[in-house]
Amino acid sequence: MAADLPTQVHIALAGLDSNGDSNSMTVSWNTKGATTTSTVKFGTSSGVYNNAATGAAAAYYETFNHHVTLGTLAPNTQYFYIVGDDASGWSKEYTFKSAPTYNQLRGNFSFFVFGDMGEKRADDSERYIKANKESVDLIWHAGDVGYADDSFLHLGCMTEFCYEKAFDDYLNDAEEWASLKPYMVMPGNHEADCHDPACLLSRERREKLSNFTAFNGRFKMPSKESGGIMNMFYSFNYGNVHFISFDSETDYPNAPLATRYVLPCGGFGDQLKWLEQDLIKANENRAERPWVLVAAHRPMYHSTNINKELQAAVEELFYKYGVDIYITGHVHSYERNYPTYQGVPEKTYQNPRAPSHLLIGGAGNDEMKDVPNNDVSAPGPWTVVTDGNYGIGKITIEDDNNLSFDYIQTTTGKVFDTFHLYRDHSAYGKKLLV
Known about the structure:
Blueprint: E1 7-14, E2 24-31, E3 39-43, E4 51-54, E5 56-58, E6 64-69, E7 78-85, E8 89-90, E9 94-97, E10 109-114, E11 117-118, H1 123-132, E12 138-141, E13 145-146, H2 163-178, E14 183-185, H3 197-200, H4 203-208, H5 213-218, H6 223-226, E15 234-238, E16 241-245, H7 271-284, E17 291-295, E18 301-302, E19 305-306, H8 308-320, E20 325-328, E21 334-337, E22 340-341, E23 344-345, E24 356-360, E25 383-387, E26 391-397, E27 402-409, E28 414-422
Parallel strand pairs: 10-12, 11-13, 12-14, 16-17, 17-20, 20-24
Antiparallel strand pairs: 1-2, 2-6, 3-4, 3-7, 5-6, 7-8, 7-9, 10-26, 15-16, 18-19, 21-24, 21-25, 22-23, 26-27, 27-28
Helix pairs in contact: 7-8
């Protein structure tokens, strides 16, 4: 068999031990054709691979996406790995550190958060992430991953089929950090379907590249471990934080893509029932993981606007179960909003009752044509600060009750905005506020 070397290597947290800690890792990659096996060789010393795990590969269109979930890993341990197989060839060596247990990591760690990063106009953010990847433990991407559906806007692609190439290029660009740090993604509207002329004129492409198929084929998030569905909605634990990745596009009443984007979509499952059950469980374990963070693609509060459908679906749940921060994108700019409930802001970060709201949608994509004033709108009554440059966020968990947030303009690498949040989580747990 001719060489078909792996590309687009990326990892995601996986597994769940009896204490709720992630105890494995899923390794994913792409090959042009089918291979004999999908294998990861790994070990705790560079060049010495004493362990091997196999998984599966599938082609939703033409190329093959491989996903291998490793066995139980030692916590907080450096591993070295290669992917591929003997017949088609092996990748170079990569490395990652397995997740710590909740009692090993009670603070002093950071992660990047952002939405809306594509293959075009993301050079500044890509450079910043690559240069600072060692400063974080994971990357959390709030939807609109790669912007493959905008590929017809790229030079030479108006009449050509470039959707798959755009996704390939994006993940190859991301490989340097996505193969090193868990890259946790969730859906945005730009993952829904391929709607360029080359897709709409082809029945095969319309059928194969609709309803988030490419997105669910290229990634494997820990939905099985958390009772979620595919990459649409799921949760995971890391240190003293419970992370919830929510689908703001489908599967709640009057969701914007409940039945259709350009092509039909939706119908994945009862997301709101899952969300409440996940929040109940998170509160039962609040002593171990006091921080509960939710990310999704669409903001609830932006400028002077309230997303009424989203608010009706989830705001009461967020408030009742003590969600600390709701992180989003969709609008291609930065907007920090005070903790807000039912449209009323609490203008403090010292133990607010309501969730804080962060919109970080300017990582860089085809549609950001007005930097440094991209998508900056009039402030709402909850708005603290806005910015229209390219940028991403960084959350640092200090301890069980304190975290800090930095918004970085990635063109200059300078911190443009920062705040500190204190939350007394003792009010939550099994005894809930009402």
